[in-house]
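User: My collaborator and I are trying to settle a disagreement about how two of our proteins should look. Neither of us wants to argue from intuition anymore, so we agreed to look at predicted structures for both before our next call. Could you fold the first one, then the second, and keep them clearly separated?

Assistant: That sounds like a sensible way to settle it. I'll keep them separate. The first protein:
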Amino acid sequence: MIREYRELTRKEMEAADRAQTPVIIPLGALEQHGSQAPLGTDAIIAEAMCRELKKQLNEKEPDADLLFFPVFQVGLSIEHLDFCGSVSFSPETYYAMLKDVCLSLKRHGFRKIIFLVCHGGNRAHVDVLSREMRGQGLYVFALSSGAFSDPRVQATISCKNGFDFHGGEMETSMVMAVDEKLVHLEDSEAGYPAFHKQFSHIGISGSAALNWVADDWKTKEGKPIGIGGDPKGASKEKGEIILQVSAEVLVPAILEIVHFRVSE
């Protein structure tokens, strides 16, 4: 049965098969997403992804035992702090917080934790934490939300939008699928990776990389805008496709974790 962690009583939690029941912990963020999308974009997407995952999991395997943890509204967003409204934990604080949650769950007998990463900046900490927790008998899985490379998702990007990244058309569309009133497309400005153009062999990721900060992304006029791509083509319909496909991609992995039996 798929249930909300925070809605269970202590008695209900004591009765749960905690060792075999995964806890899904969605990780959002509170950071700038350009002029058109809300600061809470990643947390809003995380909430929408959880709803879509529950729907698809109930259709596939309604008897699956899963607990959904509340969405973390703030994450590791140090790359965005030069833009007004962005809030971030320090790397040390964020890691310690995630670790404390894992250890609290472990103390009560949970052995399988799934971090649903809805802000890319949170992923590195989850990967390191997963390795550390394995040594303590806890299985920490990392699932990335947003199947942005899936052909069905790529097909939603407007033909003139050559590069879509943080705060671009795809993320803006996902927010519009939740509430169109939260997005102000009339204020949209396109962003380009201006800083990295000076390098021939160094990118923002890959085998030779310099990690980016939001100021690296500028308009064609050179104004820091902090997003990649052009959000103007975003729509509710595109966002619904992206959310549906993104959940569909993750469901098989989640069910595999459900069926994975840990020794007690």
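The second protein, kept apart from the first:
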Amino acid sequence: MAFNNTDISAFKNVWVFCEQRQGVMMPTTFELISEGRKLADELGVELYGILLGDNVDGIAKQLGGYGADKVLVYNSPLLKEYTTDAYTKVISDAVEEFKPDIFLFGASNIGRDLAPRCAARLHTGLCADCTHLDVDLDGYIEYLRTGSSLDVEGMNFDSKLFDVKTNLKMTRPAFGGHLMATIVCPRFRPAMATVRPGVMKRRDFDAAKAESVEILHPEFKLDASDIKTEILEIVKASKKLVDLIGAEVIVSVGRGISKDVEKGIKLAEELAEVLGGVVGSSRACVDAGWITADHQVGQTGKTVHPKIYVALGISGAIQHKAGMQDSELIIAVNKNADAPIFEVADYGICGDLFKVTPLLIEAFKAEKAKKA
């Protein structure tokens, strides 16, 4: 029977592509499983993880600990290293067999390569680089009420084209982060999305659920003739990149360092070192060439949730705030008392960062010395 992706009623459940490399699950997978659990609960369906590799059964149970009900495991020597052809065939065949309603991928290098290829083969839509997902309409309206400047009370959410209450609402930055667009895929299934790493909050690990998750091994067909490329060698380049997503403390710099960029960055590095953190930045600093893109926080950079976020000379444009406003503690230093960053700051210091930051460094050093 031919695959009919327009028969919406035939599709059910939420799937997450579970990315692993050399037998180690990528952190983004746990974030997506956690988010997938929320969506599955909103729809009243099951959450599946789909895991490809060679002898990867040993890591499958981890997915249950973060919310998966079942895990589809596909083992083959041909899946040991990622190739677009092999992974696309296995996943597309699995979708045609089991018909998931929603399918999530991490917006990693692999996810950004694999998801569009699968979507094209399955003739369905894909929303890339999402920062928010909802099925429940009330939850989506609350997201708009708190995360946008729209007059939600005056909006009409009824639609004659599709069911607003059951379709996945996928929100992503548009026009360089100046707008947020919400996209639905009403006519085809599965509704597919790639999700930016660090955006979704990981659930607490539940050991009991990890043990009770159901591991399935569906039959599948894959041979060497399905793969048009051959991996001759894997060479890992050593490039030091800042780990913003995994950092517990981030000290970010903004346009306020413009009068002495080198000194401003040095002060941020010193403060970050004292606090045991890393240096981040606003988009303005990256665009100006003062700091590399891997330091960028915001809608067009990385979304972070550190325990402490220090903003030095950052005005707090909505694009930047969207990437850091869920930090546990926010400290802002800005000489403009009306800077928007103070709206989300737990502690705000109105002053010149070049004068305030050295005082903060000394104060934190003194406090650490007391506890030593």
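Some points you might bring to the call about the second protein. The chain is about 30% helix and 20% strand. Residues 249-371 form a domain with the Rossmann fold fold (CATH 3.40.50.1220).
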